[in-house]
Amino acid sequence: MILSSTPPKPQFSIAVLPFVNRSADPDNEYFSDGITEEIIHALAKDGAIKVIARSSVFTYKNKQVDAREVGRRLGVSTLLEGSVRKAGRRVRISAQLIETESGSQLWSKNFDRELEDIFRLQDELSVLIADQIRQQFGHFEIPEPASSPPTRRIDAYERYLKGSFHFKRKDFADIQLAERYFKAAIAADDQYAEAYAYLAETYLHLAGFGLMESREAHELARNTALKSIRLQPKTARAHKVMAYIHFFYDWDWNAARKAYEAAVAAGLTGENEFITYYYVFLEKDYERALAIAEQVVEQDPLHSISHWQLGLCHYFAAQFTAAIKTFERAILLDEHFAEAHRWRGLALAQTGQFAEAIASVQHALQLSQGKGPAAYNLLQVRALMGERETVLAAMAETEYLDACDPAELYALLGMQEEAIDCLELAFTQRSTMMVGLKHYWVWDDLREHPRFERLYQRMNFGLDRNDFPSSPEWHLGKVKPQKALLNAEEREHYLRTLTHLVQEERAYLNAELSLRTLAAALEVHPNKLSWLLNQAVGKNFNEYINAYRLATFKEKALLPENSHLTLLGLAYESGFNSKTVFNNFFKKQEGMTPRAWLKTQRP
After folding, report:
1. pTM here?
2. Which domains, from first to last, does the chain contain?
3. DSSP state, residue 89
């Protein structure tokens, strides 16, 4: 068989819309949401295809959508949508694949199962649907289902899902709700590794919002993340939390890098916060940080957090106009997102737009119910306005959890000794913002001060050894080592066996044939067969099998003894199991309908 020399196809892109709960009980929402998330995870794991992140697709939950409009907004060629109907111990999951350019259905199927194990069922269905997509569009590796479920307690899982929902909003009130739900999940199952990992990261956000003292938050986060890793060593989020702790709290730069690499190796995908901070604060590589953040926006375009994170990169790079525009895009997606309002205010102040800056920060203060860092941000704006006495009077009446806050205010007022006094206190407090001493522009006027230089040396910045891969895709978990799944001898063996099975034994006549059943007949892993077809033959599974079916249909259609049969009946005899699939494939290959083709063949 001649190996393919065709150029690689454009990256396939898909959005998995939230599966609709069609059960009588609305409490079954957690199950339909879980199915959706498992499918997204199965498709995104390999990184070979563009999969829109959960937060963006869930903006369409419980909404009537037009496939073409959704495809345009999300920048994808394909949608997967479906529904879940649960009755007693039976469940039916319906799924369909839709082409966004035309809005036409490419594939649909119902799955009927007994509901014995929710997690095993989610794993099974996510793999089956991922299989269908791979058969249609080309090779990517599908991860094997977990050998054991994350928890055996449905109540723990439901609380975890609720916590995850609030956690991913990353706003003031939501992060407190997230903490409550994750603790409730752990109370229901104290062996739930993923719940511990999320709770550990929640502690970090509580410190970031000024709701918990830094030392307490980071020690709680460390203990909780390590508990997660002991329970399940490959919990990616727990390793990511450890990267944060090593970076922002321990100031152990190489340990932070190793923990982040462990998170990526464990399957962390599409989460860029840590690595953008690494490049912004430690390497001053704003170009690389922005490239990573921009790719996350592409992957998660309707999520306010993605745009906010990109805005932070612009802000710390002193690109204030770009930061303002990016924060405003985040606000358009979620007008109640306090963090976007307050950072927009700070960026406006840096450009001299003080009235609008104060209004933006005051709105953030209102949204956060008068708590958190927004009150301090108002003083930053007034310091930039030159209101020295007002700021100093307010500072005298304020207690700060993080000494870097008054240090920054003193620096903005030009009070160097007082600023460094606070930085020295922040050092003893293990303030997370001490990482900014290396490159954050707010400290530029202090850099030649002897006390600042001594403090800088105590941070051990010179011990960093940055040898991360340079590709932004690597940091998103989207670049895997390019490896052949079969060696040359295995490839030739399986090509011969495949050719015999399909051409001689005519396996394609089985209308239920799938890549997975064909792989079983060949005694090879489905991932390896997918690779063989796409890399060696140059066709995906459907193209390969349907080409044989089409050739058989043509032979049958031209036989005089078959003239009394319908074209669709002949298609079914040739192995096709769907009128839509048959007609679409025929038109794609021949450029005309089956009936029009038949007319050209008969005198």
Report:
1. 0.79
2. 13-137 (3.40.50.10610), 489-601 (1.10.10.60)
3. T
